[in-house]
Design a protein that fits this description.
Layout (H helix, E strand, L loop, with lengths): L2 H13 L3 E7 L2 E8 L1 E3 L4 E2 L13 H13 L9 H5 L12 H5 L36 H4 L16 H13 L7 H10 L1
Antiparallel strand pairs: 1-2, 3-4
């Protein structure tokens, strides 16, 4: 057994950790292990390819992916969202940049509008969350929400901004399969 495996399995035994651990070094998978249950109700075990609903925990990964693409010269903080989105998400204004999206200063509308008066038990998404498994899958959720304020005016926490940055950042439909997006995504995950 590798030292990494020994340490991980010791922590799993001590804490009851459930999830997936992967350690890459020099482009090689040194260790990968899946532990516990992905679905406790149905007794479904985690696998190395299990997708986890970690919600806002992905915002840092989104930023890392976008900054990686900036580092490669494929994108800039001043890149206009419209330049990448094309006809998708037409209510995102021409002035909105990647920086606005990442910094929650874009002013774009959001599917999780906390000012809309929805009860916590309301189902506000037009599609099941289980269908949100790709950047393209989010288009139906992100579309149709008018801007709340002009880009750069103020801070406004928006999930849609991060999702749009992910589209802009190189893992959306127009970028999937391109070398830059693949390497950036692999480095960020």
């Amino acid at each position: 057994m590798s030292v990494v495996r020994d340490v991980v399995e010791s922590v799993v035994a001590e804490t009851g950790f459930t999830g997936v651990v992967r350690v890459d070094r020099a482009g090689e998978v040194e260790f990968a292990g899946a532990y516990g249950l992905a679905d406790r109700r149905h007794g479904i075990a985690n696998r190395l390819d299990t997708r986890f609903a970690i919600a806002s925990g992905t915002k840092g990964l989104t930023a890392l992916t976008v900054v990686s693409l900036i580092e490669q010269g494929l994108l800039g903080l001043d890149t206009r969202a419209r330049a990448v989105l094309g006809d998708d998400l037409p209510l995102i204004g021409a002035e909105v940049t990647v920086e606005h999206l990442l910094a929650h200063r874009s002013g774009i509308g959001d599917y999780t509008d906390e000012d809309a008066g929805h009860a916590i038990t309301d189902h506000v998404l037009p599609v099941s969350v289980h269908r949100l498994d790709s950047a393209e899958g989010y288009l139906a959720v992100l579309d149709g929400h008018p801007a709340k304020f002009p880009a750069g005016e103020r801070f406004g926490y928006r999930n849609a901004g991060q999702c749009s940055a992910l589209q802009d950042g190189g893992v959306g439909p127009r970028w999937e399969g391109r070398q830059g997006s693949t390497s950036a995504l692999n480095r960020s995950c």
